[in-house]
């Protein structure tokens, strides 16, 4: 994880240099990455959050996407970086990028820690991604299964039997 986050931070520091940036973490999965990443960023920085959820109940397949921008700071005239834990079907970041552009952001780019290979259902692609992973349901480093496991300091594939059985 550490090397991946360092790589992402280096790319942003190079790309934005002294240009102010607003980083918006997608709750809740991005919180660990957000905390680790922003401490390595050197440009004038604003940090905010927004909410998006697509996984419902015990299912590990995405359901309807629900977005809440109420927690987010004003982004009109700002260069914005959307930060999420994982790029799967792409529907979340595709929709959020559109919504932020509609809010008047000068530019909207996106960054994820993980990209699942072969799952994308949209044309949109994240601008920065640290690691590609196979199509398995993963937890840890912010990623959850029913709000468990976010605190694991590493990313691990969840045992399919545990998915089938449900937790606790
Ligand atoms: P997308 O819209 O790209 O399909 O899904 C992105 C969101 O789905 C991520 O923000 C994340 O919350 C959730 N997600 C996708 N794949 C996984 C996974 O393997 N594990 C976990 N815990 N969440 C996932
Ligand atoms: Mg998420």
TrEMBL record:
InterPro entries: HGPRT, PRTase-like, PRTase_dom. PANTHER family: HYPOXANTHINE PHOSPHORIBOSYLTRANSFERASE (PTHR43340:SF1), HYPOXANTHINE-GUANINE PHOSPHORIBOSYLTRANSFERASE (PTHR43340). One of its GO terms (biological process) is guanine salvage. This is Hypoxanthine-guanine phosphoribosyltransferase. One of its GO terms (cellular component) is cytosol. It catalyses: GMP + diphosphate = guanine + 5-phospho-alpha-D-ribose 1-diphosphate; IMP + diphosphate = hypoxanthine + 5-phospho-alpha-D-ribose 1-diphosphate. Residues 2-146 form the Phosphoribosyltransferase domain. Keywords: Glycosyltransferase, Membrane, Transferase, Transmembrane, Transmembrane helix. The chain crosses the membrane at residues 20-38.
């Amino acid at each position: 994880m550490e090397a991946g986050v360092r790589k992402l931070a280096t790319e942003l520091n190079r790309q934005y240099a002294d240009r102010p940036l607003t980083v918006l973490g997608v709750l809740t999965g991005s919180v660990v990455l957000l905390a680790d990443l922003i401490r390595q960023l050197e440009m004038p920085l604003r940090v905010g959050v927004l909410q998006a959820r697509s996984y419902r109940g015990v299912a590990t397949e995405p359901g309807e996407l629900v977005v809440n921008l109420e927690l987010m700071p004003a982004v009109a005239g700002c260069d914005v970086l959307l930060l999420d834990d994982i790029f799967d079907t792409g529907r979340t970041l595709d929709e959020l990028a559109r919504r932020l552009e509609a809010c008047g952001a000068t530019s909207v780019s996106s960054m994820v820690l993980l990209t699942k290979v072969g799952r994308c259902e949209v044309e949109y692609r994240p601008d920065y991604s640290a690691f590609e992973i196979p199509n398995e349901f993963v937890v840890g480093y912010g990623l959850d299964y029913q709000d468990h496991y976010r605190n694991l300091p590493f990313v691990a594939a969840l045992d399919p039997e545990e998915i089938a059985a449900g937790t606790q």
